[in-house]
Write a structure and sequence with these properties.
single chain, about 450 residues, alpha/beta, Rossmann fold, UDP-N-acetylmuramoyl-L-alanine:D-glutamate ligase, Protein-Tyrosine Phosphatase, Chain A, 3 domains, six-stranded mixed sheet, 18 helices
């Protein structure tokens, strides 16, 4: 018997990158009849629909594409909302589902409920949370501690929890949108991870939240629900900002002051991420797994970590020029960190993209520090205009690469670190990074 036998569930948002695939498969495996609805047309969802085809053929999954229909949300038992759906508190389909008595939730909520928040290391921050989460998972794994990695970093952990004996440590990268759902609203405290981790903070995702205050309140939720006996890991750069990162009485406050040296990944920010990851793994081993971390093995695992795709990844080298794909950089702070990691003096920086409503002046100011700033996308002209005439407004990634290969000299670095989302010109940041790599390999001078 499945948990949802005889129930009808709606998955709101399959996503062009297939973010709703995992929960759709899981709901079907639990006996639910599933309707996947997305405002995108079938042609835009070709890849994830191909993965669902066997379930569609068997009649276990239906689709409604190109629109949402209110009646679907009022005649179901439950709705799983993709966290990318903006302002869900004011979404008419979400409101209709609740008015009709349906349970409204998200994939991450379903996973945490079944695993137990007491098994969770929750990692958030404006930048660095994916890398820190991956490093934390590697440290636990190297120490022989059963662990799973999921959340905003991608993939579904629900299938890993179907076994009755599955009680791993769950390392979850949690976005501000996920935290809104987990906490029960921007001021909620329903989420209580055993270990909470913060990498850094800067205003972001104003397009989703509506204001910087709302974004900040959602980020705070990673700590708000904790209680005595839990642990919070904070870098020294954020620990003094108690107005944002206050912890409750009895919560162990672990402040990380030094970076982990001799790491494979470049940049002081990655050294800091490594030290935060080690502290998080140490706390998770002790408080969740009930054991001590194998420190030598954990340190080695973090130091030798080569990074996630599209996160300051060396993708090509030709004629003495190195090309780094940092397409995952979607906030100005991440761009500045990437430039610092490769060295500004020889850096040809490509930046710009979808407008999320954040201040892009920090990117424009880099024009005076780098060898060249080349702007692309919807925000490109604004960044170039704020640079005092120092930036090259290229419009497209293709045009930026063409301009750079005419100027780059041996010893230079070409860095795609947009500081903006990709949705104006690409389906997602992965597609943007892949195009950068393709162009580098095609057009770089040998």
């Amino acid at each position: 018997m499945g948990e949802f036998d005889g129930q009808r569930w709606v998955v709101m948002g399959l996503g062009r990158f297939g973010g709703g695939l995992g929960v759709t498969r899981w709901l079907a495996s639990q006996g639910a009849d599933v309707l996947v609805t997305d405002t995108a047309e079938a042609d835009d969802l070709h890849a994830p629909l191909a993965d669902l085809r066997p379930l569609i053929r068997d009649g276990r999954v239906e689709t409604r594409l190109g629109e949402h229909n209110v009646s679907d949300f009022t005649t179901c038992d439950g709705v799983v909302v993709n966290p990318a759906v903006p302002t869900p508190w004011d979404n008419r389909f979400v409101r209709a589902a609740r008015a009709g008595g349906a349970r409204v939730t998200t994939e991450i909520q379903l996973a945490v409920e079944r695993l137990g928040a007491d098994r969770v290391i929750a990692i958030t921050g404006t930048a660095g949370k994916s890398t820190t989460a991956a490093m934390t998972h590697r440290a636990l794994d190297a120490s022989g501690i059963p662990a799973i990695l999921g959340g905003n970093i991608g993939g579904s952990i629900l299938t890993a929890l179907t076994r009755a004996d599955a009680r791993p440590v769950a390392v979850l990268e949690v976005s501000s949108a996920m935290l809104w759902w987990l906490a029960g609203g921007e001021n909620g405290d329903a989420f209580r991870p055993r270990v909470a981790v913060v990498t850094n903070y800067a205003p972001n995702h104003i397009d989703w939240h509506g204001s910087a205050d709302h974004y900040r309140a959602c980020k705070r939720a990673v700590l708000r629900g904790q209680s005595a006996g839990d642990a919070a890991v904070l870098p020294a750069s954020e620990s003094s900002n108690v107005s944002v990162w206050a912890t409750r009485p009895g919560v162990e406050r672990i402040v990380v002051r030094d970076g982990l040296t001799d790491a494979t990944l470049p940049g002081a920010h990655n050294a800091a991420n490594g030290a935060v990851a080690l502290a998080a793994a140490r706390a998770g081993a002790r408080l969740i797994a009930g054991t001590e971390l194998d420190e030598p093995a954990a340190v080695l695992a973090i130091r030798t970590y080569t990074g996630l795709p599209h996160r300051l990844q060396l993708v090509h080298e030709a004629g003495g020029v190195r090309f780094y794909d940092d397409s995952k950089s979607t906030v100005p702070d991440a761009t500045r960190l990437a430039v610092g990691a490769v060295g500004p003096a020889r850096c040809h920086l490509i930046a710009g993209g979808y407008d999320k409503g954040v201040d892009l002046a920090p990117i424009a100011s880099l024009a005076a520090e780098v060898a060249g700033l080349y702007t692309i996308g919807a925000t490109g002209d604004a960044i170039a205009g704020a640079s005092g005439g120092l930036a090259h407004a290229c419009g497209t990634l293709d045009a930026a690469i063409d301009a750079i290969v005419e100027r780059a000299q041996p010893g230079d670095v070409v860095l795609l670190s947009p500081g903006c989302a990709s949705w104006d010109q690409f389906a997602h940041y992965e597609a943007r990074g892949d195009r950068f790599t393709q162009l580098a390999r095609q057009r770089a001078r040998p």
